[in-house]
Design a protein that fits this description.
By secondary structure, this protein is mainly alpha-helical. Helices cover 50% and strands 3% of the residues. It has one domain: Alpha/alpha barrel (Glycosyltransferase), CATH 1.50.10.10.
Length: 415
């Protein structure tokens, strides 16, 4: 398959910093894991602004959003002053568990994967929302409010995948997850971000579709439940395929205030669309390739990721990490050359404190705490690094979809 990277994007002058060709990706993953583990996988989060004492006083939507965004965007870390403590989130642990599982051929990484997977599994909800996962903080966005007491689809997907990759959910927990996904995060047409949301968010919908398809393929669910999951997944995929624009892009969601296109959500859409289609036996090559074309042409400036399509570059740790992850994915499928994925890593690596590059001061006036977030920074970058390692020569290759659990552990799906 021909490269979809324009000629001016295949290389850029990086003489001001060590080129990624000289970097051992696995060594970077080791360094990042040790940094996050030394912090107990706890730290700031871009959406933790409502967890301090002031958050309890912000009873109106405008106050909640103002407080959350002030903490998130401030160039000075306000968390110590506002009494906001470091958080350890199940989402970060689940993402990191899946990342470590790719390296399960190495005993030390296998043990790391199992440790993170077990902790994530222990955070699975019980009671009304049994089987699902939540964020450990209240969130107010422009389109929704969801408190820490309710599950959401993004947390559930990252946590469930990490547990399934590491084989740390028993059969009962898998059945509980499957029932909860259909009962609380599917509205009969598509998968919803939260149990009370009626808004179509494409990345969340396709996360739900991919997870439902994966659960349907486990072989441990009752036949009728597996069938309902597969049917829901197929319908959800069709909904988001219908939402693809003629230029190949997907808006964040359905609605006039949700029509933006950004890098990391587009990455999630492409990854989960492919995963769901593979598990369901659907042919999505044409829409997938249109989406890849748009993503590569409009969400990169050379190897440097853009936050918004064709917009001014804005550094964000999750967007940058997802760009590395997507470049590795694209290289593994022949959309780009592996040297492009390395170039993307080189372009973004200097800002992550966990890599110990010491280049934070290079054009980085923003809130450093954002780059120290386990959920928003360290875990997605670890996922990107292990995925990149897998597609480089000698890395063993990356299995489309999800990867198997560590040797000797049952995985609910080897998709």
């Amino acid at each position: 398959m021909p490269s979809r990277i324009p000629s001016d994007q295949s290389s850029r002058d990086c003489s001001h910093q060590p080129c990624a060709e000289d970097t051992d990706v696995l060594a970077l993953a080791e360094r990042l894991f040790r940094w996050a583990d030394a912090h107990g996988w706890a730290g700031p989060d871009p959406y933790d602004g409502l967890t301090g004492p002031l958050g309890r006083l912000a009873v109106h939507r405008a106050l909640r959003q103002a407080l959350l965004q002030t903490v998130k965007r401030s160039r000075i870390d306000l968390r110590p002053v506002l009494g906001i403590r470091p958080l350890r989130t199940a989402t970060a642990a689940g993402t990191a568990a899946g990342a470590c599982a790719r390296l399960s051929a190495f005993p030390v990484w296998r043990e790391r994967a199992l440790g993170l997977g077990r902790w994530t599994a222990a955070e699975q909800m019980s009671g009304r929302y049994a089987g699902l996962w939540r964020y450990e903080f209240d969130v107010q966005t422009r389109w929704a409010y969801y408190p820490a007491s309710v599950p959401n689809l993004v947390a559930t997907t990252f946590c469930a995948d990490g547990c399934l990759d590491t084989g740390t959910l028993d059969d009962g927990a898998v059945r509980s997850l499957a029932r909860g996904l259909l009962a609380h995060l599917h509205n009969g047409e598509f998968f919803t971000y939260t149990p009370t949301s009626g808004v179509l968010v494409h990345n969340a919908n396709l996360m739900g579709a991919a997870l439902a398809a994966r659960l349907a393929c486990t072989g441990i669910l009752p036949e009728d439940l597996a069938g309902r999951l597969a049917d829901a997944a197929r319908g959800a995929v069709e909904v988001s395929l219908d939402g693809q624009r003629p230029d190949g892009s997907w808006p964040y969601g359905r609605g006039p205030r949700l029509d933006w296109v950004d890098g990391f959500h587009t990455g999630y859409v492409l990854l989960r669309l492919e995963q769901a289609a593979l598990l369901l036996g659907l042919d999505v090559r044409a829409p997938l390739e249109r989406g890849v074309d748009h993503y590569l042409q409009n969400l990169f400036d050379g190897p440097l990721p853009r936050y918004f399509a064709n917009g001014r570059t804005r550094r964000d740790p999750n967007n940058d990490a997802t760009a590395v992850r997507m470049a590795a994915w694209a290289a593994g499928r022949g959309f780009v050359r592996p040297d492009f994925a390395r170039a993307v890593l080189t372009a973004v690596a200097g800002r992550y404190p966990g890599l110990g590059t010491g280049r934070w001061t290079e054009g980085s006036p923003g809130n450093r705490a954002l780059w120290e977030s386990p959920r928003w920074s360290a875990a997605p970058l670890l996922d990107a690094l292990t995925a990149l390692h897998a597609v480089l020569p000698g890395g063993g290759g990356e299995v489309p979809g999800r990867h198997p659990a560590p040797t000797g552990q049952r995985t609910a799906a080897a998709s």
